[in-house]
Structure formats: C-alpha cells, structure tokens
Amino acid sequence: MIRDEALLQSARSGKKKKGQAFLIKYLEGGKLVRSQAVYAKCYDCNGMGDSDECDIEGCPLYPFSQFFSGKHAGSAPGTKKRIVEGGAA
Q1: Distance between CA atoms of 87 and 89, rounded to whole angstroms?
Q2: Under a CB-based contact definition with an 8 Å cutoff, are residues 42 and 26 in contact?
C-alpha cells in the first residue's frame, strides 16, 4: 500500500542522505522503529535532503535528530523531564 504517491516520488528523487531509505520504506507501507521515524521526518522536513542543517530548535523531534549537537540524542536541557512527565519514559 502506497501512503502518498507524490511524496514517495519526491523521496526517491531526493538527495541520498540519512532518512531517505526510512521515508521510502514507510511510504511503501513498511513499519519503522522510533529512531527511523525521526530520521524519515527530518529528511522530509529538510526538503528531501536539500539541507544539511536544522534550525528549528522548537521542533519536538530536534533533540532526537541527527542535527542536535548535544552529547547524545535526548540530552537537551529539560528534555528528559518533559518526556517523563508526558509518560513516554
């Protein structure tokens, strides 16, 4: 089952970067784990690989993205607290 044919074609013709294969897999009906979904969405949001950086620090996925410059994903100040309070941890 193809989820969005136009988006799938755009992903296939995008630059070869991390997240592309995950986005294609998802759009073709495949399942992703959480980290793969983050990479797929970042690839989509960054113009199918057109950008090498992200300045949308207010994005809830930013601390978990490949663009976050912290020591490890999820280490942004206050991130751990928000996740625990939200019941995800």
Answers
A1: 6
A2: no
| Integer Cα distance of 89 and 56 in angstroms | 24
- How far, rounded to the nearest angstrom, does the alpha carbon of residue 37 sit from its chain's CA centroid? 5
Structure tokens at 12: 């296939």
What does the pLDDT look like over 23-57, one tens digit per residue? 999 999 999 999 999 999 999 998 998 888 888 88
1-9 long-range contacts, CB within 8 A, separation 24+: 1/29, 2/27, 2/28, 2/29, 3/27, 3/28, 3/29, 7/44
pTM, to two decimals: 0.71
C-alpha to C-alpha distances, 30 to 4, 36, 37, 62, nearest whole angstrom? 13, 11, 11, 24
Kindly tell me the sign of the dihedral angle through the C-alpha atoms of 57, 59, 60, 64: negative
Q: How far apart are CA 28 and CA 9, in angstroms?
A: 11
